[in-house]
Amino acid sequence: MTVTTPPDPLNFFWFIPTYGDGTYLGSETQQRPPEFGYFREVAQAVDRLGFGGVLLPTGQACEESWVTASGLATVTEKLKFLVALRPGVVQPAYAARQTAALDRLSNGRLLLNVVVGGNPVELAGDGVFLPHDQRYEQAAEFLRIWSGLVSGERVDFSGKHYRIEKGRLDFPPVQNPPPLYFGGSSEAGIDLAAEQCELYLTWGEPLEAVAGKIAAARSRAAARGRKLRFGIRLHFIVRETEAEAWAAADKLISRISDEQIEIAYKRFTQQMDSVGQRRMAELHGGRRDKLLVAPNLWAGVGLVRGGAGTALVGTPAQVAERLREYQALGIDTVIGSGYPHLEESYRVAELLFPELGINVARRGVSRAIQNEFGVDETARKLASAS
Q1: Which positions of the chain have pLDDT values less than 70?
Q2: Domain Luciferase-like, which positions (predicted)?
Q3: What distances in angstroms separate CA 166 from CA 100, 158, 159, 161, one per listed residue?
Q4: Where does residue 341 rank: exposed (0-12), middle (13-18), buried (19+ CB within 10 A)?
Q5: Hey, which residues does 292 pair with through a beta bridge?
Q6: For 225, what's the count of Cα atoms within 13 Å in the CB-facing half-sphere?
Q7: What is the DSSP letter of 90?
Q8: Residues 333 and 199 sit within 8 Å (Cβ to Cβ)
Q9: Are strands 297-298 and 311-314 parallel, antiparallel or unpaired?
Q10: For 22, which of 31, 109, 115, 265 could close a Cys bridge (C-beta 3.0–4.6 Å)?
Q11: b/e sequence 288-317, b meaning 16+ C-beta within 10 Å
Q12: What is the pTM of this model?
């Protein structure tokens, strides 16, 4: 008899909505502004619920991720913080000092998300004017310098984009070094991940597309004598019944106008040079009638949201089955989100985590009395004895 060993539970992260949050996409109704007090609520909730970490986005429309993570690290206990490392926007030596300081402040809870950027208009506002592939060339030099410094090396480097003489880091990080995560669908992006990163992230695409990206990244890493881990970035709409889940999905985009969809689609396909963003936009083509792109994989979020644009929609069992399919391809980490992020974090933890075998230590008290939440096993035994 063949005994199948169940896969290890997924590492499940959540998201801090540093650009704001709300109930409806494309609408100012029931919006939640990007305030630190709300970020703290979300971070403390997911820390308590058993999520392993949170991603903090980066960009002109977001509160600064390093400053926000520094504040959240002081009000959480176990939560890890996946913070953007921006080659080209900051100098590698300065980024190394930031890394060491935040890693020490959080007692080793820092992770780095390498973000090269895919919007030339926004990058120009940050003073970055390099074309797509040259940005990845610059990022490779940046990471070689950064990695040397945070690993305790004395760094001398002379390249096309950077020159460093006698670089050093006097205050080392707790981790040696903190792990590098990276998401990019272009050839240049996959090469960068294969060469220097620990975990390669993909946005949520159909299984065949994700399998192809994983195979390419794994092969290129192996050619360099390296191994990569893999993760996926997805939104979640999980409800007790399938009908409830799809009703929630429809409600989320019910106030988006056709004009908003058209403007967003043009921005994604004409203004941006991100291969990953183009792949997201091509899933739906700017059309409301093409949103179901694979079983339970819905592209509605991507009608107006840049970056990750797909959600897994369904019952806990359905969504868990889809995640296990991704896990079979090699995915070991999920970075999730949902609208609003506070409420959806509870739904994911309470409905989906049990299906995924994610064991969460929850605070509670043992009650031997009946109350409005039912009768626990202890009370049943006492009632039988009496």
Answers
A1: 1-6, 360-371, 373-386
A2: 11-332
A3: 18, 11, 15, 17
A4: buried
A5: 298
A6: 0
A7: B
A8: yes
A9: antiparallel
A10: 31
A11: eeebebbebbbbbbbbbbbbbbbbbbbbbe
A12: 0.93
Distance CA 302, CA 288 (A): 11
The tens digit of pLDDT for each residue in 324-367 reads 999 999 999 999 999 999 999 999 999 999 999 997 555 455 55
Write out the two tokens for 195.
């060469």
What the block records as the tokens of 159 is: 């390249």
222-251 core/surface letters (b: 16 or more CB in 10 A; e: else) = eeeeeebbbbbbbbbbbbeeeeebbebbee
Q: Are 280 and 268 in contact (CB under 8 A)?
A: yes
Helix, strand, or coil here: 58?
coil
Bridge partners, residue 13, by sequence: 53, 335
Residue from 96, 29, 42 nearest 68 by CA: 42
CATH architecture of 11-385: Alpha-Beta Barrel (3.20)
- Residue 175 exposure: Cα atoms within 13 Å on the Cβ side: 18
Contact of 197 with 180, CB cutoff 8 Å: yes
> Could you tell me the CA-to-CA distances from 102 to 71, 106, 249 in Å, in that order?
10, 6, 37
Distance CA 178, CA 182 (A): 13
Q: Break the chain into its structural domains and give their ranges.
A: 11-385
**Phi and psi for 78 in degrees, rounded to 5?**
-115, -15
| Residue 230, SS3 per DSSP | strand
Tokens matching residue 68 = 């926000």
Residue with tokens 């020490």: 104
**d(C-alpha 78, C-alpha 173), whole Å:** 17
Locate tokens 């970075």: which residue?
335
Q: Of how many residues is the chain composed?
A: 386
Name the token pair of 5.
Answer: 């060993």
